[in-house]
Write a structure and sequence with these properties.
The complex is a heterodimer of chains A (216) and B (309).
Chain A lengths: L4 H14 L1 H26 L2 E3 L2 E3 L1 H30 L2 H5 L6 H30 L9 H25 L4 H15 L12 H8 L2 H11 L1
Antiparallel strand pairs in A: 1-2
Helix pairs in contact in A: 1-5, 2-3, 2-5, 3-5, 3-6, 3-7, 3-9, 5-6, 6-9
Chain B lengths: L1 E12 L2 E12 L3 E5 L6 H8 L7 E6 L2 E2 L4 H7 E4 L11 H11 L4 H14 L15 H12 L6 E5 L7 H16 L3 E6 L2 H7 L2 E6 L2 E6 L1 H6 L5 E8 L2 H9 L4 E4 L5 E5 L2 H14 L3 E8 L3 H9 L5
Parallel strand pairs in B: 3-8, 3-9, 6-7, 7-8
Antiparallel strand pairs in B: 1-2, 1-4, 4-5, 9-10, 11-13, 11-14, 12-13
Classes of the chains: A mainly alpha (216), B alpha/beta (309).
Chain lengths: 216, 309
């Protein structure tokens, strides 16, 4: 079932090394979100009521920013399938002595590797920069939530991109992330959200991942 | 022992039957060719045999393993060169070969030795650190073929391996395939180049509209025409009328199908002058004349009624 997983993991990491812009964008985008939304828009939003306490918007949004990076990891996983399909290497891979499971799992493992590194980076960056500091009582819960998020979103985007033929796959990659991000508790509290949005958010895994991180 | 056994292999894509009840067997160590025009069903047959797509009907066994039931076992034994370029375009030549070595679980030392050997054989030594996307089409193709030889497979599938290559690269790949097969390995080649099939294959299956219309050695296929010589006239005039006129001559064995005026005769030396006179008498102006032995292309045209474009 996991035949060829180490070599596929190696291949993915090797390819990622060359796709340095993907790593930079995966690092910069959540940090940009964190500072743009957390500091700039946060000033306009004021404090947010969460679990019977008031949090600065920056602190409220920090788990959302981590979730942004996790969603973008999923987008990258899906994008790599598109890339393999465009470069026709997917057909070649199908005749390699590796299992189909290993092909997909290797992508998820690479997303885990990069996203967890990124999560730790965001936490380390956030601690000295934020007044009061980013903190968590249960780092394992944060990591678990992040890992589940990566598995979930990488699987969603890879399944989605496997089903949608080119050229619509790239359009799907552009359209899907904003919907997932905006219909969740990543950017705002759902307490005062309209009921239809709450319903959508409760069907969205991003809501649960963010809430677990926020609670931890 | 049989390397490949196909029985009633069929594949549909919507209303199109790409491969229509194809059956053939290939012995171990054989160089078997599938010859046919674009869209004949060669690639689909190879895709089924290499487990990329499942057949809709029929059975196919590769080294005794059913492609549907034991695809993993099949994939362990085969090497594949696809028709289109399928490479990691941002990797270097060396890294590309290295990945293939890892896929086939070669240890570091063997991998290094094999890469050096292939770089030398395919004349890619000075390109080892260049990215694939920076290479010319011909060099990319050479890299693609080289990847299939990283771990010598028991059966090598080559789908149009020399398409779009310059003559030098083609010849290089032909030589390598020849050398490879001397080791007792089986080669399955699909091509629409007559000379390639003639030169490389010990047996050829002519495939058209998804069906195999003939299967024999290159010499066997050519002999179906009955030997002799083919005289071809480049003429100005009504070719259909000329065909009808010269077909009545008793020394003309056969009028060849195709656009040109060509006739098969038993001995061109004896009848060339007479036949030319008849053509002129029939009102045509001869621009050129050529004499040759029957080729695989003549057999193909006879069997399918069309020329490979």
């Amino acid at each position: 079932m996991f035949k060829g997983l180490p070599v596929m993991y190696y291949r993915e990491l090797h390819n990622l090394r060359r796709a340095w812009f993907a790593i930079i964008s995966a690092t910069v985008i959540p940090i940009l979100y964190l500072f743009l939304f957390g500091l700039s828009i946060g000033g306009l939003m004021g404090d947010i009521e969460y679990e019977d306490q008031y949090l600065s918007y920056f602190l409220f949004f920090a788990p959302g920013a981590v979730e942004v990076s996790i969603i973008f990891s999923g987008v990258n996983s899906g994008g790599m399938i598109s890339n393999d399909r465009y470069s026709k290497i997917l057909e070649r891979i199908l005749s390699w002595p590796i299992s189909r499971t290993s092909y997909f799992l290797a992508r998820i493992l690479v997303s885990m590797t990069t996203s967890i590194s990124l999560l730790l980076f965001v936490l380390l960056l956030g601690i000295p920069l934020v007044e009061g500091g980013l903190y968590c009582d249960n780092i394992f819960l944060v990591l678990l939530s992040a890992l589940l998020g990566i598995i979930c979103f990488s699987s969603i985007f890879m399944s989605f991109l496997s089903l949608i033929p080119p050229p619509n796959d790239s359009i799907a990659l552009t359209c899907l992330p904003p919907v997932i991000m905006l219909c969740s508790s990543m950017f705002y509290s759902l307490a005062n959200a309209p009921s239809w949005l709450r319903t959508m958010a409760y069907m969205n895994p991003a809501t649960y991942m963010t809430d677990v991180m926020r609670g931890a | 022992m049989l390397a490949i056994e196909c029985a009633g292999l069929t594949k549909h894509f919507g209303d199109l039957t790409a491969v229509d009840h194809v059956s053939f067997e290939v012995e171990k160590g054989e160089r078997f060719g599938l010859l046919g025009p674009n869209g004949a069903g060669k690639t689909t047959t190879i895709r089924m045999l290499t487990t990329v797509i499942p057949p809709d009907e029929g059975t196919a066994k590769v080294l005794g393993f059913d492609v549907r039931r034991k695809p993993d076992k099949v994939r362990e034994k085969i090497g594949v060169v696809l028709q289109g370029l399928a490479l990691e375009f941002f990797s270097t030549v060396y890294d590309t070969l290295d990945i293939y070595g890892r896929i086939y679980k070669m240890n570091a030392e063997n991998r290094k030795k094999r890469i050096e050997y292939l770089l030398s054989e395919f004349e890619l030594e000075d390109k080892r650190n260049e990215r694939i996307d920076c290479l010319s089409g011909g060099l990319q193709r050479r890299v693609q073929v080289a990847t299939a030889f990283m771990q010598p497979p028991e059966i090598l599938f080559l789908d149009e391996p020399t398409i779009g290559l310059d003559p030098q690269s083609r010849r290089k790949i032909w030589q390598f395939i020849e050398e490879f097969s001397k080791g007792g390995y089986t080669v399955i080649l699909s091509t629409h180049y007559m000379d390639e099939a003639d030169y490389l294959c010990s047996r050829i299956g002519i495939i058209d509209y998804g069906k195999i219309s003939a299967l024999d050695t290159p010499e066997g296929l050519k002999s179906t025409l009955g030997g002799g010589d083919i005289i071809t006239f480049g003429v100005e005039g009504n070719v259909d009328l000329l065909r009808s006129t010269i077909s009545k001559l008793d020394y003309v064995e056969e009028i060849m199908a195709g656009d040109e005026l060509a006739a098969r005769v038993e001995n061109a030396d004896e009848v060339l002058f007479k036949l030319s006179e008849e053509v002129v008498k029939a009102g045509a102006k001869i621009k050129n004349i050529s004499v040759r032995k029957p080729s695989l292309e003549d057999t193909f045209i006879k069997l399918t009624g069309r020329r490979i474009e």
